[in-house]
Design goal:
This protein has 199 residues and is α+β, with helices and mostly antiparallel strands. The chain has helices spanning 47-60, 81-92, 96-109, 117-126, 131-138, 141-156, 175-178, 181-197, and strands at residues 22-23, 36-42, 67-73, 164-167, 171-174. The protein has a 5-stranded mixed beta sheet with strand order 1-5-4-2-3, with helices on both faces. The longest helix has 17 residues, at 181-197.
Length: 199
């Protein structure tokens, strides 16, 4: 006679602080106290972030309306600060949906480094966007402020690798902690539930 072993569903899975996620100390500010905030710390140069993007996009489609999701570009090298500027410029002119995934594709599949304004203007024009406007926006005061904020947030969350997910200024998880990048989304769901209970 064979025995059927019942395994807990993902919803019932127990995630352990210190193992699957860490508490952020001190807690970091969030954009809107009425919403639970989830941050994805990513880098365009990160192949894991590129591979994570389809799973993340599918997860975002199911997020409740009271959860605010924001992408936070980070860099561990001075020559990639331009990628932080690029993301915030895409955000400022409403091109994230159109070009965010294509930046990953250009960098990783097509081996385009995108580390000069000329590279980025050419990339934008090739993908149906105004390259001159994008590059001008990258150099704007507003984008410089957002880069500064992103760098401060990454420091506050003690980001050591990407992709990482910060939840409500209180917790941080990653593929390394969760066991895989896709499983980090399950941990994020758990942390979102914890944040809602704490209200």
């Amino acid at each position: 006679m064979s025995l059927t072993v019942l395994t807990p569903s993902r919803a019932q899975e127990q995630f352990v602080p210190g193992r699957h996620y860490v508490e952020v100390s001190p807690h970091q500010p969030t954009k809107d106290s009425k919403q639970v905030e989830v941050l994805e710390f990513f880098a365009y140069s990160c192949s894991h972030c590129s591979a994570f993007e389809p799973a993340l996009e599918a997860w975002l489609k199911k997020l409740p309306r009271d959860v605010l999701f924001r992408r936070i570009p980070v860099t561990f090298r001075e020559d990639f600060v331009i990628h932080q500027q690029l993301y915030f410029a895409l955000e400022a002119i409403g091109l994230v949906e159109q070009l965010h995934g294509k930046v990953f594709q250009a960098f990783h599949a097509e081996r385009k480094r995108l580390i000069t304004h000329a590279d980025i203007a050419f990339f934008a024009a090739k993908n149906g966007a105004d390259g001159k406007r994008l590059v001008e926006t990258m150099s704007s005061f507003g984008v410089a402020g957002k880069v500064k904020q992103a760098t401060a947030l990454a420091g506050g969350y003690n980001i050591e690798g990407t992709p990482s997910l910060g939840v409500n200024g209180k917790w941080l998880t990653s593929g390394f902690q969760a066991g895989s990048n896709s499983r980090s989304l399950d941990v994020a769901d758990h942390l979102i539930a914890l944040a809602k209970k704490a209200r």
